[in-house]
């Protein structure tokens, strides 16, 4: 039941973010109350100094949270460094990083 409620909460929070539009930088917060409890979500993104990043998270009624973040950095030499991480409600997380080389 908690998984279904969280999925509903995430869907509503995602829809709220889409309706609000895409900002180049800044953040948003939304709260959704369902039969399973109250979920609070936030999202932000920023760009500056050659790096762009974004973060999203949601916290459920039991205080557990899940989220993801990603960033890309222009290294100034034709390469870009990337990183991405995901944190799940059960405490598991994973991260990936890499380098993109342009054909210039």
Structure, explained:
The structure is a single chain. With 104 residues, the protein is of the alpha+beta class. The protein has one helix and six strands. The longest helix has 19 residues, at 2-20. Strands 1-2-3-4-5-6 form a six-stranded antiparallel beta sheet, covered by helices on one side. The protein has one helix at residues 2-20; strands spanning 26-34, 37-48, 51-59, 65-74, 79-87, 93-101. A hairpin with a 2-residue loop joins strand 2 and strand 3. 18% of the residues lie in helices and 56% in strands. The chain is elongated and about 55 Å long. It has one domain (2-101).
Structure classification: alpha+beta
| Domain module tally | 1
Low-confidence stretches: 1-23
Radius of gyration: 16 Å
Number of helices: 1
Tell me the distance between the termini: 52 Å
Strand order, sheet with most strands? 1-2-3-4-5-6
Percentage beta strand: over 45%
* Largest sheet descriptor: 6 strands, antiparallel
SSE succession: HEEEEEE
Shape: elongated
Range of helix content: 10-25%
What is the overall pLDDT average?
A: 81
**What's the count of strands?**
6
